[in-house]
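Hi there,

I know you've been waiting on this one. I reran it after we fixed the sequence typo, so this is the corrected version. Both the input and the resulting structure follow.
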Amino acid sequence: MVPRYLVDFDLDKLPQVKTDVIVIGAGIAGLFTAIRASETGQVLMITKKSLLDSNTRYAQGGIAAVISDEDSPEYHRQDTLIAGAGLCDNDAVDVLVHEGPEGVKDLIRMGTQFDLENGVFALTKEGAHSQRRILHAQGDATGAEIVRALSEKTKQSDRIEVWDDHYAIDLITYENECKGVLVQKPDGGRVYAQAKAIVLCSGGTGQLYRYTTNPDIATGDGVAMAYRAGAVIRDMEFIQFHPTSLCYPGAPRFLISEALRGEGAVLRNIRGERFMEKVHPMLELAPRDVVARAIIREMEHTKSTFVYIDITHESPEMIKHRFPNIYEFCLTYGLDLTSDWIPVAPAAHYMMGGIRTDLNGQTSIKRLYACGEVSSTGVHGANRLASNSLSEAIVFGRRIIEHIRTLTESEPTPAIAEHSHRPEGPMQAIVEKRLKLQKVMVRYVGLFRNAKGLEKGLEELRRQISVFDSCLSKREEFEFANLLTCALLTTQSALRREESRGGHSREDFPQTDDTHWRKHNLIDRNNGFTEERIHD
């Protein structure tokens, strides 16, 4: 169904470059990993837009790490395991909570300026955290500040070469070892980039859904590339929908940070009534999947397309200081965060599954690593704990580089060619195809799922697989092929898991079933679906 390669090629006829480490992606995972890799070797960064275009730049809330004397790694561990709903890997969580603080220090050494209060780090609290442990920057622009600092550090390095506006089409492998990457240049020409190790930091699959907090670049490229190469993909059914994105005519689905609720904001239905009291003892700070589904049910109950988030009880000075970015953005649409209730609704936000890795970030393919949202390290389980993603990226980015330093040089790539004889011709209406795919995912593979809908969705997605029979040449065509691959993996995994857990909710199987389903869904193109039991 999904071909090994998206395009025809002959490596012997392509221009070739060689470096020590290739990093694909320019979010916190890519930038941090590239900087660490450059300490001992040459690095090639490949980004399909620029260093400033990534999901990280839009991260508002912050980064979770044990900094306060009142906090502890054990508390952080417990919160992560509870949010992960029984599917976290204990060893991976231990790595995160113990190594996260040192990773934050690395970010500071690289120039990141986190907010301070009276000379100490200003810490906030978000959903499912028992302690204040979220560091933030410029109030609610943490991601932008981290990207600023790491981008400047990257530009200063003479060991990091950045290829902006280049598209990584496919991974080149030989005998289960990754040799390099087939890359398309801005002018449409192609080049074969080789390295001792390749690190995928290409982000998630947010554009699977019409309503998403993710930028346009989040098209699942890394997962799809790795799947085509034969890597094991894990737990694609677990998609996190952020409970509160702006829902206002003419406005994009702008993220209204969970940190608002951490600072006391409450949710109200269109009648002005609070409703989380009847849902969960943690009220508005319940795990994200709980809050998102509660909002959808309240919208259905009140026949509305949104609920309100209300922080008007706090002082205008506090709101403007703590949430300057959200305040200014809402104001451009005539909404005043200091005096108005803000209309919000859930939107696709984060992919908990991805390419399965070990504790060193290595995938099932030798010399291929994955870091950040594209990876499945085992930290997030069935539902990511708020602000753990930035911590995960730096913790496992450090481990990846330490492991790469133990590798010997790769053997030369043998002559590899792909001649599938795909017919040439313009792709038909990619924008329409993408919108149709998104509508299928929203309708059948959204916050609430059932077998009938998932089977219908799978049937509609399979009607679009003729895209793989076409001669692809443009970035938009590659992105659609990757989105379709991820949509198929997500829908098949959701149909397979006959229970409700974390970010996966089945109306026909509403209970969590630890007896039969405390395990991971694995899939690779060579073996299909397999399972991996959870070990305490």
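Quick highlight: The radius of gyration is 22 Å.

Best,
R. S.
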